[in-house]
Design goal:
The protein is built from 19 helices and 6 strands. The protein is of the alpha/beta class and 456 residues long. It folds into 3 domains: 4-72; 84-209; 219-453, von Willebrand factor, type A domain (Rossmann fold, 3-Layer(aba) Sandwich), CATH 3.40.50.410. Strands 3-2-1-4-5-6 form a 6-stranded mixed sheet, with helices on both faces.
C-alpha cells in the first residue's frame, strides 16, 4: 500500500497529465495507485513503465507522459541550481569531451546520465537574475559538440574493419542512439533544475510541447508536419469509408420493373412488394476547395496533406486552391507524388493571384463556377478548407449556396476557434447558414468530425 504522501504526489501527476491533454480517467488513476504498490518506486525505470502501462492509451501521448514523468519523478533532487560552488568550478572542455568519448564507446547508460548531470551543472549555467540561476541544454551541447565525435567513434568501434559495409551501418546507428540518449539526459536534467527553482507546474505549462493531435494547424512548425502527416493519412481513409457508407445507406438501387411485375402476379397484379436492382458500392467523388493564402499558412500545409491523403482513397478527387482567384491543382497530387515537391510546384505554377494576393472568397467561388461548372454535381462531396476571412470583400454567398445545393454532401473545415467566427473580416457566420461549418483547429478535432459523420 502506497503512503498517503505518495498518493497525493501521484494525484498531482495525474492532474498534470489531464491538463496536458492526456485522457486519464478515474479508473486509470486507481490503477496507477495500484502500480505504486506493485513496483519498486525507487527504480525509475520500473515506475515509468508501470505507470505508462495504465495511463498511456495511445502512442501519441507518450512524449507528453515522459516529459511530465521527468518533472514529477526526477532522478535526483536537491543538487540543482542552489549550488554556486559547483557551477563556479573551473572546467576543461577538452577533458569533458575526452570523458564523453569514453562513455559513448562504453555505452553505459547510467554513467552517461551521471555525466549529463555534471555537464549541466558546469556548462549549462546562463545569466542569472538575483536569487535565481538559469540553465540551458543548448549551452551544454554547444560546449560538448557530440556530433563532432562521430568520426573518432566510428574508427574506434570499427577497429580497422572496412568502411561501407554492414558493420559501419550498425556502428553509425549505435552512435546515433547513444548521442540521442545523451541529449535526452541533458534535457531532463535542465528541466529538473528549472523545476526545482520555478515549480513543476510552471515548467509543465511552458516547456511541455502539445501533443501532435492537439497542435493548432495555424501554429504548426516544421517539426510537427511529419507527425501530422502520419496522423492525417488514417483519418483520410476513415473519411472516405464513412462518406461511401453514407452513399450506400442513403440510396437504393434502381427499380427492377420485370421482377416487380412478376412478383405482383401472386397478389392479383398489385405490386405490394417492389424489387430493386443491386446498388453497386463505389468510392465517392470529392471536390476539395483549399484556401492557401498567407493568413492560413500553417493550415495550408495541413490542407495539402489532407488533399494528398484523400487522393489515395477516392475514385475521383479534384483539388482546387485559391487566394483571390482559383485554379485546379489536382495534377500536383497524383497518387504517390511527393508532398514537398507538390507544394513547391503549386506555389510556382498554379494561378492563384488575380489582383493583390489577399483572400477574396467571393471572386474565387465565382471563378470556380465559371471555369469548372460541372465539377460539383449530385454525386459529389464538397469539402471547403479555410478561415472564411474575406478582407471585407464580397463573400459570394449566392455562389456558395448554389454549390452546396448541387452537391450530395458539403462541409467546411475552419481552423479558427468558433468564438472568432464573424469577428472582424470573418464571414464564417454568414457561410455557416449555407454549409455545415466545423471547427477544425487540430487533428483531434478532425478525428471527431470524421467520427461524427457516421457513428460506428
Amino acid at each position: 500500500m502506497a503512503a498517503p504522501g505518495l498518493l497525493d504526489h501521484l494525484a498531482d501527476f495525474v492532474r498534470a497529465l489531464r491538463s496536458a491533454g492526456v485522457p486519464v480517467g478515474v479508473s486509470e488513476g486507481i490503477d496507477a495507485a495500484a502500480v505504486l504498490g506493485a513496483v519498486d518506486v525507487l527504480d525509475r525505470r520500473q515506475l515509468r513503465a508501470g505507470l505508462a502501462t495504465v495511463v498511456v492509451k495511445r502512442p501519441v501521448y507518450r512524449p507528453t507522459y515522459d516529459a511530465l514523468f521527468d518533472l514529477w519523478w526526477p532522478a535526483r533532487m536537491g543538487d540543482g541550481a542552489n549550488r554556486p560552488d559547483v557551477d563556479a568550478t573551473p572546467v576543461d572542455p577538452e577533458a569533458l569531451r575526452d570523458e564523453l568519448m569514453r562513455l559513448l564507446l562504453d555505452g553505459d547508460e547510467e554513467a552517461l546520465r551521471r555525466f549529463a548531470r555534471e555537464a549541466v551543472a558546469t556548462l549549462g549555467g546562463g545569466d542569472a537574475v538575483p536569487g535565481r540561476q538559469s540553465f540551458f541544454s543548448y549551452r551544454v551541447l554547444r560546449a560538448l559538440s557530440p556530433d563532432t565525435l562521430v568520426s573518432g567513434l566510428l574508427d574506434a568501434l570499427l577497429a580497422g574493419a572496412a568502411r561501407g559495409g554492414l558493420a559501419e551501418q550498425v556502428a553509425r546507428q549505435t552512435i546515433k542512439e547513444r548521442i540521442g540518449a545523451l541529449r535526452t539526459a541533458i534535457e531532463e536534467e535542465v528541466r529538473r533544475r528549472v523545476a526545482e527553482e520555478r515549480g513543476r507546474d510552471s515548467v509543465a505549462r511552458t516547456t511541455v510541447r502539445p501533443m501532435v493531435d492537439q497542435v493548432d494547424f495555424l501554429r504548426a512548425q516544421q517539426q510537427d508536419l511529419a507527425a501530422l502527416r502520419r496522423t492525417v493519412a488514417p483519418l483520410a481513409r476513415r473519411l472516405a469509408a464513412r462518406l461511401a457508407a453514407k452513399r450506400r445507406r442513403g440510396r437504393s438501387g434502381r427499380l427492377d420493373f420485370r421482377r416487380t411485375v412478376r412478383s405482383s402476379l401472386g397478389t392479383g397484379g398489385v405490386p405490394i412488394v417492389t424489387h430493386h436492382r443491386p446498388h453497386w458500392p463505389h468510392k465517392p467523388e470529392l471536390v476539395v476547395l483549399c484556401d492557401v493564402s498567407g493568413s492560413v499558412a500553417g493550415f495550408s500545409h495541413f490542407t495539402l496533406m489532407l488533399t494528398a491523403a484523400l487522393r489515395e482513397q477516392f475514385s475521383r478527387v479534384r483539388a482546387f486552391a485559391f487566394v483571390d482567384t482559383c485554379d485546379e491543382v489536382t495534377r500536383f497530387f497524383a497518387p504517390g507524388a511527393d508532398l514537398v515537391d507538390a507544394t513547391q510546384r503549386l506555389s510556382r505554377e498554379a494561378d492563384l493571384v488575380w489582383f493583390d494576393g489577399h483572400s477574396d472568397y467571393g471572386h474565387a467561388f465565382e471563378v470556380f463556377v465559371e471555369r469548372w461548372p460541372d465539377a460539383v454535381g449530385p454525386k459529389t462531396s464538397l469539402l471547403v478548407l479555410g478561415d472564411a476571412r474575406t478582407n471585407y470583400r464580397s463573400p459570394g454567398s449566392a455562389t456558395l449556396k448554389g454549390l452546396v445545393t448541387r452537391s450530395r454532401h458539403a462541409y467546411w473545415l475552419n481552423p479558427e476557434p468558433r468564438r472568432q467566427w464573424g469577428s472582424g473580416d470573418s464571414a464564417a457566420d454568414v457561410y455557416a447558414e449555407l454549409i455545415e461549418m466545423v471547427e477544425c483547429r487540430n487533428a483531434d478535432q478532425l478525428g471527431a468530425f470524421v467520427s461524427r459523420l457516421l457513428p460506428v
